[in-house]
Amino acid sequence: MEEARHICIELDEPSGAADCLFLLGKVYETQGKFDIAMSTLEQARAQFNQLGAGPGPANCLRLLGWAYFAQSQYEAAFSAAKEAKSAYTELQAYRGTAHTLLLLSAIHCDQGQFSEAYSAPEEAKSLYARMGDKLSIAESQLSMGRVLIKQGRYNEAHRCAQDAKDEIVRAGDSRALRTHSHYLEMSIGARANSMRLTLL
C-alpha cells in the first residue's frame, strides 16, 4: 500500500495517493494502531480537501470517529461523526450517512443515551433499505439489538437479532452469518437468562 502511494506521487496522481493514505489509515485502525491510523487519516483528509469536492474528507472523518470511539474519547468521536454526517448529507451520499449513523449509535449507547442510540440505526436501516443493501440492513438491526441488550430488553433484542439473521440469509452471505453468529448467540443467551430469572 505504501509503495502504491509513492508510485501515485511519482506519477503525479494526487487522488490515488490520497486513496492509498485512506486505505492505510483504515488498515491501521482495524489493527488497533490508533496513533498512526489517526495521523495517516488526517494526512489523507488534508489531501482530499485539496482535491475539492467528494466524499474523501467525510470518509476520513468517519474512520477518525471510530478510532476516537475505540479509545473512549467520546467527545472527539461525536464531533468527527457529526461533521462527517453533515458532509455526507450535503453530498447526498446516503451510504456514508447511514454508516455514520451506526457510529453515532455506538457513541450514544456507550454513554447511556439510549433513545438517540436506538433512533440512529433505525434511520440508517431506512437509508439502507432504499439502496436494497440487505447486509447493511442486518447491521442496523444488530446495532438496535445492542442498544436493547444494554437496557435489559432481551426479548426485543432477540427479535432484532433474528430479523438481522433473516436479512443475512436472504442476502445469501454465509460469511456474514458466521461473522455475526457470536452476537446472535449472545442475544439468544440473554433472552434465555431473562426468561429463567422471570420464572424464579
Describe the overall structure.
α6 runs antiparallel to α7 and α7 runs antiparallel to α8. The N terminus and C terminus are likely disordered. The protein has eleven helices and no strands. The chain has 200 residues and is mainly α. The protein is globular.
SSE layout:
Blueprint: H1 2-10, H2 14-30, H3 34-51, H4 56-70, H5 74-91, H6 94-110, H7 114-131, H8 134-150, H9 154-171, H10 174-179, H11 181-199
Largest sheet: none
Q: What is the tally of helical segments?
A: 11
What share of the residues does DSSP label as strand, in percent? under 5%
Backbone structural class: mainly alpha
Choose one word for the global shape.
globular
Order of helices and strands: HHHHHHHHHHH
Q: What share of residues is helical?
A: over 70%
The rounded Rg comes to: 19 Å
Kindly state the mean pLDDT as a whole number?
A: 84
Gap between N and C termini: 57 Å
- Total strands: the figure is 0
Low-confidence stretches: 1-14, 194-200
